[in-house]
Amino acid sequence: MSDMSNLKYRILIIDNSSDTKQSLEDFLDDGEFMFEQEFSIDKGYKKIQKQHYDLIITEIQLGENQMTGLEMLQKVRESNSTVPFVILTDQSSVEISVKAINYGVAGYLVKPLVPSEVSETIKRAIRHHKGRFLKGELENYRMENIFSAVIASEERSILKLLDTVDNLIELVYPNDTGGFSDLKMAIYEGLSNAVEHGNSNQSDKNIFFKLNLRMDRITVHIRDEGEGFNSHEIGRQRRGMKELNRGLDLIHHLMDEVSFNTKGNEINLLKIF
Question: What residue spans in the chain does CATH classification 3.40.50.2300 cover?
């Protein structure tokens, strides 16, 4: 009889730095994971075809003469494999996010690696993947998917991010596609306010976005780099605030709950369904 306590999750790392594997082993030193590494995407893909892995962590680009991490992910999905992928990158990219989500990416790790982010991302990716194969309903089961992005204060970045949100919602709630128009409109208004009123249309300033998808609710956090405002007195403020008031009224109408942080440069949205 096999000892279940000896079972480990097998993780393949595809990256050209041996420091990455060492860091992951240090951050997740709990005996639950077993790491292997390949230094080229081509070799990593061959290994995936021959062996079972519970998670793949891969760079996007490791050389001009080999396939990219996204191309490998596409090939793996075309073979009907559902193994979760985590993208390893030097900086957050909404463009990459959109393409990767189309093929089913489970998360992102941005270098330099942060221990808490590594642990949360890897464990969530494996837990969610395993949960998809459970038969029946578990009384205490909670589904949760978190997506974060940093975008520039410009319209095209907003539209790319909204495409990403569309793809995420379609993946997580496949039976409710098209039923989240209110949420998407509220997110667009929140992002537009962050660009125009928060960051004063300065494209060199960032907007910080976080989306949390759960079984019964969705929460959204949008933060800009502006000075903020007093949300309790906004109705009394006049100059340049008419459009902001109108946008916030619409958001309040569309969402179940709307709140702000103390500084007034972050809006939090809640949609219950």
Answer: 4-131
